[in-house]
Design goal:
Layout (H helix, E strand, L loop, with lengths): L1 E5 L5 H16 L6 E6 L2 H10 L3 H23 L6 H22 L1
Parallel strand pairs: 1-2
Length: about 110
Protein backbone atom coordinates (compact mmCIF):
# COMPACT_ATOMS: atom_id res chain seq x y z
CA UNK A 1 0.00 0.00 0.00
CA UNK A 2 1.34 3.40 -0.99
CA UNK A 3 -0.44 6.42 0.51
CA UNK A 4 -0.16 9.86 -1.01
CA UNK A 5 -1.70 13.13 0.11
CA UNK A 6 -0.96 16.73 0.95
CA UNK A 7 1.93 18.23 -0.98
CA UNK A 8 2.58 14.97 -2.88
CA UNK A 9 -0.71 15.59 -4.73
CA UNK A 10 -0.80 19.37 -4.29
CA UNK A 11 -0.51 20.35 -7.94
CA UNK A 12 -0.41 18.83 -11.42
CA UNK A 13 3.37 18.39 -11.41
CA UNK A 14 3.34 16.56 -8.08
CA UNK A 15 0.41 14.36 -9.14
CA UNK A 16 2.40 13.35 -12.23
CA UNK A 17 5.44 12.56 -10.07
CA UNK A 18 3.24 10.51 -7.74
CA UNK A 19 1.79 8.64 -10.72
CA UNK A 20 5.33 7.97 -12.00
CA UNK A 21 6.27 6.44 -8.63
CA UNK A 22 3.24 4.16 -8.73
CA UNK A 23 3.85 3.11 -12.35
CA UNK A 24 7.55 2.53 -11.66
CA UNK A 25 6.75 0.18 -8.77
CA UNK A 26 4.13 -1.61 -10.86
CA UNK A 27 6.57 -2.03 -13.76
CA UNK A 28 9.08 -3.58 -11.35
CA UNK A 29 6.49 -6.25 -10.59
CA UNK A 30 5.70 -4.88 -7.16
CA UNK A 31 2.01 -5.15 -6.28
CA UNK A 32 0.81 -1.64 -5.63
CA UNK A 33 -2.35 -0.42 -3.97
CA UNK A 34 -2.28 3.37 -4.17
CA UNK A 35 -4.31 5.35 -1.64
CA UNK A 36 -4.77 9.06 -2.24
CA UNK A 37 -6.03 11.47 0.39
CA UNK A 38 -6.75 15.19 0.20
CA UNK A 39 -4.62 17.60 -1.74
CA UNK A 40 -2.41 20.11 0.07
CA UNK A 41 -4.48 22.26 2.45
CA UNK A 42 -7.86 20.75 1.54
CA UNK A 43 -8.40 18.86 4.80
CA UNK A 44 -7.99 22.11 6.75
CA UNK A 45 -10.34 23.90 4.36
CA UNK A 46 -12.97 21.17 4.74
CA UNK A 47 -12.70 21.31 8.53
CA UNK A 48 -13.11 25.09 8.44
CA UNK A 49 -16.08 24.68 6.09
CA UNK A 50 -17.66 22.15 8.45
CA UNK A 51 -17.27 24.54 11.40
CA UNK A 52 -18.48 27.74 9.73
CA UNK A 53 -21.90 29.11 10.58
CA UNK A 54 -21.76 31.94 8.07
CA UNK A 55 -23.34 30.98 4.74
CA UNK A 56 -21.27 33.50 2.77
CA UNK A 57 -18.08 32.19 4.36
CA UNK A 58 -19.22 28.66 3.53
CA UNK A 59 -19.78 29.64 -0.09
CA UNK A 60 -16.35 31.29 -0.23
CA UNK A 61 -14.64 28.20 1.18
CA UNK A 62 -16.55 25.85 -1.12
CA UNK A 63 -15.56 28.00 -4.09
CA UNK A 64 -11.89 27.98 -3.03
CA UNK A 65 -11.87 24.20 -2.78
CA UNK A 66 -13.53 23.75 -6.17
CA UNK A 67 -11.35 26.34 -7.93
CA UNK A 68 -8.24 24.64 -6.55
CA UNK A 69 -9.33 21.22 -7.82
CA UNK A 70 -10.50 22.63 -11.14
CA UNK A 71 -7.18 24.42 -11.66
CA UNK A 72 -5.11 21.32 -10.92
CA UNK A 73 -7.38 19.17 -13.08
CA UNK A 74 -7.12 21.66 -15.95
CA UNK A 75 -3.32 21.67 -15.62
CA UNK A 76 -3.25 17.87 -15.69
CA UNK A 77 -5.33 17.66 -18.85
CA UNK A 78 -3.83 20.82 -20.45
CA UNK A 79 -7.30 21.95 -21.51
CA UNK A 80 -10.78 22.22 -20.11
CA UNK A 81 -11.09 19.59 -17.43
CA UNK A 82 -13.44 16.66 -18.10
CA UNK A 83 -14.58 16.77 -14.47
CA UNK A 84 -15.87 20.37 -14.55
CA UNK A 85 -19.51 19.28 -14.19
CA UNK A 86 -18.74 17.03 -11.24
CA UNK A 87 -16.80 19.83 -9.52
CA UNK A 88 -19.73 22.26 -9.95
CA UNK A 89 -22.10 19.64 -8.54
CA UNK A 90 -19.82 19.09 -5.53
CA UNK A 91 -19.62 22.84 -4.92
CA UNK A 92 -23.42 23.09 -4.95
CA UNK A 93 -23.74 20.18 -2.51
CA UNK A 94 -21.18 21.76 -0.15
CA UNK A 95 -23.08 25.05 -0.17
CA UNK A 96 -26.43 23.32 0.37
CA UNK A 97 -24.97 21.30 3.26
CA UNK A 98 -23.55 24.44 4.90
CA UNK A 99 -26.80 26.35 4.37
CA UNK A 100 -28.95 23.53 5.69
CA UNK A 101 -26.75 23.02 8.72
CA UNK A 102 -26.76 26.74 9.49
CA UNK A 103 -30.53 26.90 9.33
CA UNK A 104 -30.90 24.00 11.77
CA UNK A 105 -28.27 25.36 14.17
CA UNK A 106 -29.79 28.81 14.56
Amino acid sequence: IMKFGGSSVGDAEMICKTADIIVDQFNKGIGVIPVVSAMKGVTDQLLHLAETKDISEGERLANEIIVYHYSVSRDLFKRTTPVAGELRELRNKLIIDVGGRNMTQE
